[in-house]
Write a structure and sequence with these properties.
Shape: globular
Number of strands: 10
Protein name: Glycosyl transferase, family 14
Largest sheet: 5 strands, mixed
Bound molecules: 2-acetamido-2-deoxy-beta-D-glucopyranose
Pfam families: Branch (PF02485)
Helix content: 25-40%
Low-confidence stretches: 26-31
Radius of gyration: 28 Å
Strand order of the largest sheet: 3-2-1-4-7
Number of helices: 11
GO molecular function: glycosyltransferase activity
Number of domains: 1
GO cellular component, one term: membrane
InterPro entries: BC10-like, Glyco_trans_14
Length: 367
Protein backbone atom coordinates (compact mmCIF):
# COMPACT_ATOMS: atom_id res chain seq x y z
CA UNK A 1 0.00 0.00 0.00
CA UNK A 2 2.82 2.35 0.92
CA UNK A 3 4.57 1.73 -2.36
CA UNK A 4 1.43 2.57 -4.37
CA UNK A 5 0.70 5.81 -2.46
CA UNK A 6 4.24 7.21 -2.25
CA UNK A 7 4.26 8.95 -5.68
CA UNK A 8 1.13 10.74 -4.58
CA UNK A 9 2.68 11.75 -1.21
CA UNK A 10 5.81 13.03 -2.88
CA UNK A 11 3.77 15.06 -5.35
CA UNK A 12 1.72 16.50 -2.52
CA UNK A 13 4.83 17.51 -0.56
CA UNK A 14 6.36 19.05 -3.64
CA UNK A 15 3.17 20.93 -4.39
CA UNK A 16 2.82 22.23 -0.81
CA UNK A 17 6.47 23.35 -0.71
CA UNK A 18 6.06 25.33 -3.90
CA UNK A 19 2.82 26.78 -2.60
CA UNK A 20 4.40 28.01 0.65
CA UNK A 21 7.48 29.28 -1.09
CA UNK A 22 5.39 31.41 -3.42
CA UNK A 23 3.18 32.54 -0.55
CA UNK A 24 5.98 33.72 1.71
CA UNK A 25 8.78 34.58 -0.66
CA UNK A 26 7.61 38.18 -1.21
CA UNK A 27 7.73 38.70 2.57
CA UNK A 28 10.96 36.82 3.19
CA UNK A 29 12.93 38.57 0.48
CA UNK A 30 12.11 42.21 1.35
CA UNK A 31 12.67 41.37 5.02
CA UNK A 32 16.16 40.16 4.22
CA UNK A 33 16.77 43.25 2.16
CA UNK A 34 15.56 45.45 5.00
CA UNK A 35 17.86 43.66 7.44
CA UNK A 36 20.72 44.12 5.05
CA UNK A 37 20.03 47.87 4.90
CA UNK A 38 19.91 48.10 8.68
CA UNK A 39 23.24 46.33 8.99
CA UNK A 40 24.69 48.68 6.42
CA UNK A 41 23.39 51.70 8.32
CA UNK A 42 24.76 50.44 11.61
CA UNK A 43 28.14 50.03 10.02
CA UNK A 44 28.07 53.69 8.96
CA UNK A 45 26.44 54.97 12.13
CA UNK A 46 29.15 56.13 14.52
CA UNK A 47 29.09 54.42 17.89
CA UNK A 48 29.25 56.34 21.13
CA UNK A 49 32.08 55.39 23.47
CA UNK A 50 30.18 56.85 26.42
CA UNK A 51 27.78 54.37 28.01
CA UNK A 52 24.67 55.47 29.93
CA UNK A 53 26.45 54.16 33.04
CA UNK A 54 29.47 56.45 32.40
CA UNK A 55 27.08 59.32 31.82
CA UNK A 56 25.29 58.74 35.14
CA UNK A 57 28.53 58.43 37.09
CA UNK A 58 29.86 61.64 35.57
CA UNK A 59 26.65 63.53 36.25
CA UNK A 60 26.81 62.46 39.88
CA UNK A 61 30.47 63.47 40.18
CA UNK A 62 29.91 66.90 38.58
CA UNK A 63 26.89 67.50 40.79
CA UNK A 64 28.92 66.67 43.92
CA UNK A 65 31.68 69.05 42.84
CA UNK A 66 29.25 71.91 42.20
CA UNK A 67 27.55 71.30 45.56
CA UNK A 68 30.87 71.23 47.42
CA UNK A 69 31.71 74.66 46.03
CA UNK A 70 28.39 76.30 46.86
CA UNK A 71 28.80 79.06 49.46
CA UNK A 72 26.72 77.11 52.01
CA UNK A 73 29.04 74.13 52.06
CA UNK A 74 32.29 75.90 51.25
CA UNK A 75 35.04 74.62 53.49
CA UNK A 76 36.96 77.88 53.06
CA UNK A 77 34.81 79.77 55.54
CA UNK A 78 35.59 77.24 58.27
CA UNK A 79 39.35 77.57 57.98
CA UNK A 80 39.74 80.94 59.62
CA UNK A 81 42.80 80.29 61.77
CA UNK A 82 45.24 78.82 59.27
CA UNK A 83 46.46 80.99 56.45
CA UNK A 84 46.13 78.77 53.41
CA UNK A 85 47.21 79.95 49.99
CA UNK A 86 45.26 79.60 46.80
CA UNK A 87 46.55 76.80 44.58
CA UNK A 88 46.85 75.89 40.97
CA UNK A 89 45.52 72.45 40.05
CA UNK A 90 47.60 70.82 37.30
CA UNK A 91 45.38 68.43 35.38
CA UNK A 92 47.33 65.85 33.38
CA UNK A 93 45.26 64.23 30.66
CA UNK A 94 47.24 61.30 29.30
CA UNK A 95 47.07 58.02 27.41
CA UNK A 96 50.77 57.23 27.64
CA UNK A 97 53.61 57.45 30.17
CA UNK A 98 54.31 60.83 31.77
CA UNK A 99 57.84 60.88 30.41
CA UNK A 100 58.38 64.54 31.34
CA UNK A 101 57.66 63.86 35.03
CA UNK A 102 61.29 64.60 36.04
CA UNK A 103 61.07 68.02 34.36
CA UNK A 104 57.71 68.76 36.00
CA UNK A 105 59.11 67.63 39.34
CA UNK A 106 61.85 70.22 39.05
CA UNK A 107 59.19 72.77 38.09
CA UNK A 108 57.14 72.00 41.22
CA UNK A 109 60.11 71.69 43.60
CA UNK A 110 59.98 73.99 46.62
CA UNK A 111 56.38 75.07 45.97
CA UNK A 112 54.46 72.59 48.10
CA UNK A 113 51.14 73.98 49.32
CA UNK A 114 50.77 76.06 46.16
CA UNK A 115 49.69 73.32 43.75
CA UNK A 116 47.92 69.98 43.40
CA UNK A 117 48.33 67.39 40.67
CA UNK A 118 45.54 65.26 39.19
CA UNK A 119 46.05 62.63 36.51
CA UNK A 120 43.40 61.15 34.21
CA UNK A 121 45.18 58.17 32.66
CA UNK A 122 43.30 56.11 30.08
CA UNK A 123 42.61 52.79 31.87
CA UNK A 124 42.88 50.90 28.55
CA UNK A 125 46.59 51.71 28.36
CA UNK A 126 49.09 50.34 30.83
CA UNK A 127 51.22 53.19 32.15
CA UNK A 128 54.36 52.94 34.23
CA UNK A 129 54.46 55.03 37.41
CA UNK A 130 55.74 58.55 36.69
CA UNK A 131 59.28 59.31 37.78
CA UNK A 132 58.56 62.02 40.28
CA UNK A 133 58.24 62.19 44.03
CA UNK A 134 55.47 64.78 44.06
CA UNK A 135 52.06 63.65 45.21
CA UNK A 136 49.78 63.03 42.26
CA UNK A 137 46.14 62.04 42.53
CA UNK A 138 45.26 59.45 39.92
CA UNK A 139 41.54 60.06 39.52
CA UNK A 140 39.02 57.36 38.45
CA UNK A 141 39.45 57.47 34.68
CA UNK A 142 37.52 56.14 31.72
CA UNK A 143 38.47 55.30 28.19
CA UNK A 144 39.51 58.23 25.98
CA UNK A 145 39.80 58.35 22.20
CA UNK A 146 40.76 60.97 19.68
CA UNK A 147 37.90 62.49 17.69
CA UNK A 148 35.32 61.66 20.34
CA UNK A 149 33.57 63.47 23.20
CA UNK A 150 35.46 61.26 25.68
CA UNK A 151 38.13 63.98 25.81
CA UNK A 152 35.52 66.49 27.02
CA UNK A 153 34.38 64.04 29.69
CA UNK A 154 37.95 63.41 30.84
CA UNK A 155 38.66 67.14 31.18
CA UNK A 156 35.44 67.66 33.14
CA UNK A 157 36.28 64.70 35.39
CA UNK A 158 39.63 66.30 36.17
CA UNK A 159 37.98 69.64 36.98
CA UNK A 160 35.39 67.95 39.21
CA UNK A 161 37.92 65.88 41.14
CA UNK A 162 40.17 68.88 41.69
CA UNK A 163 37.27 71.01 42.95
CA UNK A 164 36.09 68.25 45.30
CA UNK A 165 39.57 67.52 46.59
CA UNK A 166 40.72 70.96 47.65
CA UNK A 167 38.63 74.14 47.94
CA UNK A 168 41.83 76.17 47.55
CA UNK A 169 42.34 75.05 43.96
CA UNK A 170 41.44 78.28 42.19
CA UNK A 171 43.05 77.78 38.79
CA UNK A 172 42.95 74.63 36.68
CA UNK A 173 45.61 74.05 34.04
CA UNK A 174 44.94 71.23 31.58
CA UNK A 175 48.21 69.62 30.48
CA UNK A 176 49.02 66.66 28.24
CA UNK A 177 51.87 64.19 28.53
CA UNK A 178 53.55 66.00 25.60
CA UNK A 179 53.45 69.42 27.33
CA UNK A 180 56.40 71.10 28.99
CA UNK A 181 56.61 74.26 31.13
CA UNK A 182 58.25 77.34 29.56
CA UNK A 183 58.66 79.33 32.79
CA UNK A 184 59.30 78.79 36.49
CA UNK A 185 56.48 77.82 38.80
CA UNK A 186 56.79 81.13 40.60
CA UNK A 187 56.36 83.12 37.39
CA UNK A 188 53.23 81.20 36.41
CA UNK A 189 51.73 81.24 39.90
CA UNK A 190 52.27 84.97 40.35
CA UNK A 191 50.73 85.73 36.98
CA UNK A 192 47.52 83.93 37.93
CA UNK A 193 47.20 84.50 41.65
CA UNK A 194 49.62 87.22 42.68
CA UNK A 195 52.61 87.10 44.98
CA UNK A 196 52.35 83.92 47.10
CA UNK A 197 54.20 85.58 49.99
CA UNK A 198 51.64 88.36 50.36
CA UNK A 199 48.92 87.54 52.87
CA UNK A 200 46.15 89.16 50.86
CA UNK A 201 42.90 87.28 50.85
CA UNK A 202 41.77 88.97 47.69
CA UNK A 203 41.80 85.60 45.96
CA UNK A 204 38.75 84.51 47.93
CA UNK A 205 36.59 86.80 45.84
CA UNK A 206 36.92 85.00 42.55
CA UNK A 207 34.62 87.27 40.62
CA UNK A 208 37.14 88.86 38.34
CA UNK A 209 39.46 85.93 37.73
CA UNK A 210 40.04 85.40 34.07
CA UNK A 211 40.27 82.13 32.17
CA UNK A 212 42.95 81.55 29.55
CA UNK A 213 41.33 79.71 26.71
CA UNK A 214 41.55 80.21 23.00
CA UNK A 215 38.19 81.21 21.48
CA UNK A 216 38.01 81.97 17.77
CA UNK A 217 35.83 81.55 14.72
CA UNK A 218 38.77 82.13 12.41
CA UNK A 219 39.24 78.63 11.04
CA UNK A 220 38.95 77.56 7.40
CA UNK A 221 37.25 74.28 8.35
CA UNK A 222 34.81 75.72 10.86
CA UNK A 223 31.72 74.76 8.90
CA UNK A 224 32.87 71.16 8.37
CA UNK A 225 33.43 70.91 12.08
CA UNK A 226 30.01 72.41 12.79
CA UNK A 227 28.24 69.77 10.69
CA UNK A 228 30.48 66.82 11.66
CA UNK A 229 27.50 65.18 13.42
CA UNK A 230 25.15 65.91 10.53
CA UNK A 231 23.54 69.03 9.08
CA UNK A 232 21.63 70.96 11.75
CA UNK A 233 22.60 68.52 14.51
CA UNK A 234 23.74 71.28 16.90
CA UNK A 235 20.59 73.33 16.43
CA UNK A 236 18.80 75.03 18.05
CA UNK A 237 21.21 75.35 21.00
CA UNK A 238 24.23 76.32 18.91
CA UNK A 239 23.65 78.49 15.82
CA UNK A 240 26.63 78.44 13.47
CA UNK A 241 27.50 82.06 14.23
CA UNK A 242 28.04 81.14 17.90
CA UNK A 243 30.14 78.05 17.16
CA UNK A 244 33.79 78.50 18.20
CA UNK A 245 37.08 76.66 18.06
CA UNK A 246 40.06 76.81 20.40
CA UNK A 247 43.01 74.82 21.60
CA UNK A 248 42.34 71.70 23.65
CA UNK A 249 44.58 72.87 26.51
CA UNK A 250 43.41 75.71 28.71
CA UNK A 251 43.69 77.30 32.13
CA UNK A 252 40.30 77.92 33.74
CA UNK A 253 39.43 80.05 36.73
CA UNK A 254 37.30 78.24 39.29
CA UNK A 255 34.14 80.19 38.52
CA UNK A 256 34.34 79.01 34.90
CA UNK A 257 35.25 75.44 35.88
CA UNK A 258 32.02 75.35 37.90
CA UNK A 259 29.98 76.67 34.98
CA UNK A 260 31.43 73.92 32.81
CA UNK A 261 30.46 71.26 35.38
CA UNK A 262 26.90 72.56 35.60
CA UNK A 263 26.50 72.64 31.85
CA UNK A 264 24.07 70.07 30.34
CA UNK A 265 22.47 71.65 27.29
CA UNK A 266 25.44 71.87 24.94
CA UNK A 267 26.87 68.61 26.23
CA UNK A 268 23.77 66.76 25.00
CA UNK A 269 24.75 67.89 21.51
CA UNK A 270 28.52 67.61 21.70
CA UNK A 271 28.37 64.08 23.10
CA UNK A 272 26.81 62.82 19.84
CA UNK A 273 29.32 60.84 17.81
CA UNK A 274 30.51 62.33 14.50
CA UNK A 275 29.83 61.03 11.00
CA UNK A 276 32.74 63.00 9.61
CA UNK A 277 35.73 61.86 11.65
CA UNK A 278 38.13 64.15 9.78
CA UNK A 279 36.31 67.18 11.22
CA UNK A 280 35.60 65.75 14.64
CA UNK A 281 37.38 67.55 17.49
CA UNK A 282 34.62 67.97 20.11
CA UNK A 283 36.99 69.07 22.90
CA UNK A 284 38.27 71.94 20.73
CA UNK A 285 34.70 73.22 20.35
CA UNK A 286 32.73 72.44 23.48
CA UNK A 287 34.72 74.56 25.94
CA UNK A 288 35.36 77.59 23.67
CA UNK A 289 31.77 77.65 22.36
CA UNK A 290 30.23 77.35 25.81
CA UNK A 291 32.49 79.92 27.50
CA UNK A 292 32.13 82.37 24.65
CA UNK A 293 28.34 82.14 25.08
CA UNK A 294 28.50 82.38 28.87
CA UNK A 295 31.24 84.88 29.69
CA UNK A 296 33.19 86.13 26.68
CA UNK A 297 34.63 89.07 28.62
CA UNK A 298 35.92 86.78 31.36
CA UNK A 299 38.11 84.82 28.92
CA UNK A 300 41.42 85.72 27.32
CA UNK A 301 40.45 84.25 23.91
CA UNK A 302 44.09 83.19 23.51
CA UNK A 303 45.83 80.12 24.89
CA UNK A 304 48.91 80.01 27.11
CA UNK A 305 50.02 76.71 25.56
CA UNK A 306 52.20 77.18 22.52
CA UNK A 307 51.75 74.72 19.71
CA UNK A 308 53.33 74.69 16.27
CA UNK A 309 50.80 74.02 13.51
CA UNK A 310 53.26 74.60 10.65
CA UNK A 311 53.12 71.62 8.27
CA UNK A 312 50.66 69.81 10.51
CA UNK A 313 49.69 66.35 9.32
CA UNK A 314 46.30 64.75 9.93
CA UNK A 315 45.40 67.23 12.69
CA UNK A 316 48.65 66.62 14.56
CA UNK A 317 50.91 69.60 15.29
CA UNK A 318 54.67 69.58 14.80
CA UNK A 319 56.36 67.28 17.33
CA UNK A 320 59.74 68.50 18.55
CA UNK A 321 62.59 66.02 18.73
CA UNK A 322 65.81 66.11 20.71
CA UNK A 323 68.04 67.75 18.04
CA UNK A 324 65.64 70.74 17.91
CA UNK A 325 65.84 71.48 21.65
CA UNK A 326 67.94 74.57 22.41
CA UNK A 327 67.75 77.67 24.54
CA UNK A 328 66.90 79.60 21.36
CA UNK A 329 63.91 77.36 20.70
CA UNK A 330 62.67 77.74 24.29
CA UNK A 331 62.96 81.53 24.10
CA UNK A 332 61.17 81.57 20.74
CA UNK A 333 58.34 79.40 22.05
CA UNK A 334 57.68 81.82 24.90
CA UNK A 335 57.14 84.78 22.57
CA UNK A 336 53.52 85.69 22.01
CA UNK A 337 51.45 88.60 20.74
CA UNK A 338 49.29 88.63 23.88
CA UNK A 339 49.53 90.18 27.34
CA UNK A 340 51.30 87.09 28.62
CA UNK A 341 54.07 85.12 27.03
CA UNK A 342 53.39 81.40 26.59
CA UNK A 343 53.59 79.36 29.82
CA UNK A 344 53.52 75.85 28.32
CA UNK A 345 54.38 74.23 25.01
CA UNK A 346 53.63 71.03 23.11
CA UNK A 347 54.25 68.59 21.52
CA UNK A 348 57.56 67.18 22.62
CA UNK A 349 58.67 63.62 21.95
CA UNK A 350 60.13 61.54 24.82
CA UNK A 351 63.71 61.87 23.51
CA UNK A 352 63.57 65.60 24.40
CA UNK A 353 63.65 64.87 28.14
CA UNK A 354 67.43 64.71 28.36
CA UNK A 355 68.25 67.97 26.51
CA UNK A 356 65.38 69.74 28.30
CA UNK A 357 66.67 68.67 31.73
CA UNK A 358 70.11 69.95 30.74
CA UNK A 359 68.81 73.48 30.13
CA UNK A 360 65.98 73.47 32.70
CA UNK A 361 67.58 75.57 35.44
CA UNK A 362 69.50 77.94 33.20
CA UNK A 363 66.83 78.53 30.57
CA UNK A 364 63.32 77.22 31.29
CA UNK A 365 63.08 78.18 34.96
CA UNK A 366 65.01 81.43 34.56
CA UNK A 367 62.42 84.07 33.77
C1 LIG B 1 57.49 74.77 13.53
O1 LIG B 1 57.59 73.54 12.83
C2 LIG B 1 58.29 73.62 11.60
C3 LIG B 1 58.29 72.25 10.96
O2 LIG B 1 57.01 71.72 10.87
C4 LIG B 1 59.71 74.08 11.83
O3 LIG B 1 60.38 74.23 10.59
C5 LIG B 1 59.69 75.42 12.57
O4 LIG B 1 61.02 75.77 12.90
C6 LIG B 1 58.87 75.31 13.84
N1 LIG B 1 58.76 76.63 14.46
C7 LIG B 1 59.14 76.87 15.70
C8 LIG B 1 58.94 78.27 16.21
O5 LIG B 1 59.61 76.02 16.42
C1 LIG C 1 52.61 87.62 16.10
O1 LIG C 1 52.03 88.39 15.04
C2 LIG C 1 52.80 88.43 13.86
C3 LIG C 1 52.14 89.38 12.88
O2 LIG C 1 50.77 89.10 12.77
C4 LIG C 1 52.95 87.01 13.29
O3 LIG C 1 53.72 87.01 12.13
C5 LIG C 1 53.59 86.12 14.35
O4 LIG C 1 53.63 84.80 13.88
C6 LIG C 1 52.83 86.19 15.65
N1 LIG C 1 53.59 85.47 16.66
C7 LIG C 1 53.07 84.50 17.40
C8 LIG C 1 53.96 83.87 18.40
O5 LIG C 1 51.92 84.15 17.28
Amino acid sequence: MLSSSSPFVYSLILFLSLFFLLLFAPQILPFKKHQQQELEQNRQKPQSLITPQDELEDLHLFHQAVLSASPASSKISHLGTVNPKPKIAFLFLTNSDLVFAPLWQRFFQGNDHLFNIYVHADPFVKLSAPEWSVKANFIPAKRTARGSPTLISAARRLLANAILDDPFNLYFALISQHCIPLHSFNHIYTSFLGDPSSSSKAFLTQKSQKSFIEITSDSPHLHNRYVARGEGSLLPEIPFKQFRVGSQFFVLAKRHALLVLKERKLWRKFRLPCFDLDSCYPEEHYFPTFLSMKDPKGCSHYTLTRVNWTDSVDGHPHTYHAPEVSSDLLHTLRKSNSTYSYFFARKFSPDCLKPLMAIADDVIFRD
